[in-house]
Amino acid sequence: MYLIVGLGNPGVRYARNRHNAGARCLARLAAAHNLEFGRRQKNARVARGEIGGVPVLLAIPQTFMNESGRAVAPLARFYQVPPERLMVVYDDLDLPLGAIRIRPDGGSGGHRGMQSVIGHLGTQKFPRLRIGIGRPPGRMDPADYVLQDFSPEEELVVEEAIARAVAAIQTWLTEGLEKAMSEYNSRESEVGSRESEVGSRESEVGSRESVVISQVAGGAMSIRVPVVERILSANDRLAEANRARLDAAGVFAVNLMASPGAGKTSLILRTVRALKDRWRIAVLEGDLASTLDADRVAAEGVLSVQITTGGECHLDAAMVQSGLERLPLEEVDLLLVENVGNLVCPAEFRLGVHRNVLIASVPEGDDKPYKYPPMYQGVDAVVLNKIDVLPAFDFNLDYFRRGVEALNPGVAFFPLSCKTGEGLDVWLEWVEKGIVGSG
Ligand SMILES: Nc1nc2c(ncn2[C@@H]2O[C@H](COP(=O)(O)OP(=O)(O)OP(=O)(O)O)[C@@H](O)[C@H]2O)c(=O)[nH]1
Ligand SMILES: [Mg+2]
Fold first, then answer.
1. Nearest CA-CA partner of 215 in 226, 194, 231, 234
2. 224-233 burial, b if ≥16 CB within 10 A, otherwise e?
3. Closest ligand to the CA of 266
4. Residue nearest to atom 32 of ligand 1 (CA)
5. Ligand 2 center to 247 CA (angstroms)
6. In whole numbers, what is the pLDDT of the chain averaged over residues?
7. 417 lines ligand 1 (CB under 6 A)
8. Residues with catalytic annotation?
9. How far is 25 from 197, CA to CA, in rounded Å?
């Protein structure tokens, strides 16, 4: 039996405090493996079950932080858990926000909860996972700082760190401590330099200011750039966590991007109808508002989850993560994601899917690759929809194709019509090849 403990203070008042990062991590770990904190035992809420075939007891002490040892030591004794099979997860001021660090042993580093655990166990030789919460600003007392909630911007970063911590704990259980450390410990250079590099990257992020403004409404000018840096890198890391989750469940995921009305939903419906008897399909529908598209998809009898972005012009990795949480991924082979209709910013936000697809359509005109190059550059396939209306438009297929090739040489290209079905077979073959490859 392995014992995994997440430190924090009990009660809702403290639940979102920086000091409760460890307890939050345990709640997420339990949710990720369908375990429930149903019982109380030895001053802790506990959940018992298996993770990756390994028997575990998850515990969140219900003592105050500085008494955590009164929960951990009795549990370890009762279940005869040797120190090397105990993992304590807790927040650390000395690690930058969002970094995680696993160690086989060590002192408390001044952490009151760890002091108590070490004192009651009589040893400091047990693994621990620290979640970085960063130093308090200015002269703020660390004791006050840890009892504050994370700011909304920090929440994004810490959520992602917790997701990584959850994955790291699973690796520890199934592949050992060394492997978990080498795979998940944040590199010193990476964490140390993130903040200091911001200044020099200012010009690069400058072009993304619209993103900044919408994400940190009300934020002071002086913190604008650091915040967007964090948000973008947090998005990338969340995307990686999404990918790990999809891979673990054997799901092949495709993100469909296009301007409004190019035919994202139409292509999803065609794909669902053609493949739903052979594969288990689910759809994430991203929209500014309304469940219109999600309802059209659900009518086909496949799982469909609506993500309403509340005004954001794109999906990001956190939105996809929340969508994934609402799907039984183990029962899905193919996940189609309909991004918000937009030809500009979706390309900037990685989601963690396996393929990114851009759908262009004939009525938009043959010059779109030349006018919206970033959308064409990063994608794995370009679909040209509505070829049934080619005769009605001055659309030069060759000109369009040359634009695409120049931006993304060798990219898969599928001219088709969702209306007549022409060209669909080649697209479907490409999708199925992806599903088979990922299974
Ligand atoms: N002629 C023709 N019309 C099509 C084709 N595919 C889609 N349409 C039409 O284009 C319109 C928009 O299609 P949707 O599939 O809703 O487009 P969308 O990209 O999902 O749109 P948003 O979700 O609003 O961004 C609908 O009226 C479709 O019937 C096609 O291949 N040929
Ligand atoms: Mg749609």
1. 231
2. bbbbbbbbbe
3. 1
4. 386
5. 26
6. 87
7. yes
8. 19
9. 29
DSSP 75-107: HHHHTT--GGGEEEEEEETTS-TT-EEEESS--
258 lines ligand 1 (CB under 6 A): yes
Q: What is the pTM of this model?
A: 0.55
Atom 25, ligand 1: residue with shortest CA distance:
260
pLDDT of 351-379, one tens digit each? 999 999 999 999 999 999 998 888 998 89
Q: Whose CA is nearest to atom 2 of ligand 1?
A: 386
What's the pLDDT score for residue 347? 79
What tokens appear for 102 in the block?
A: 């696993």
Mutational pocket test of ligand 1: of 264, 266, 291, 358, the residue with most ligand atoms within 8 Å of the beta carbon: 266
Contacts of 84 (CB under 8 A, 6+ apart): 104, 125, 126, 127
Domains of the chain (ranges; CATH) run 2-193 (3.40.50.1470), 234-438 (3.40.50.300)
> Is ligand 1 within 6 A of the CB of residue 375?
no
Q: What is the pLDDT of residues 27-60, one digit of tens each?
A: 989 888 888 887 899 999 999 999 999 999 999 9
> With a 6 A CB cut-off, is 57 part of the ligand 1 pocket?
no
Q: What is the pLDDT of residue 53?
A: 93
Ligand 1 touching residue 270 (CB < 6 A): no
Residue 219's CB is within 10 A of a number of other CB atoms, namely 17
Which residues, 6+ apart, have CB-to-CB distance to 435 below 8 Å? 252, 279, 333, 334
Residues 6+ apart with CB under 8 A from 245: 324, 329, 352
What pLDDT was estimated at residue 419? 98
For 285, the token pair is: 């529908």
Cα(265) to centroid of ligand 2, in Å?
4
For residue 341, give the ligand 1 atom closest to its CA: 25
Residue 192's contacts (CB-CB under 8 Å, 6 or more residues apart) are 96
Give the pLDDT of residue 188: 52
SS3 351: coil
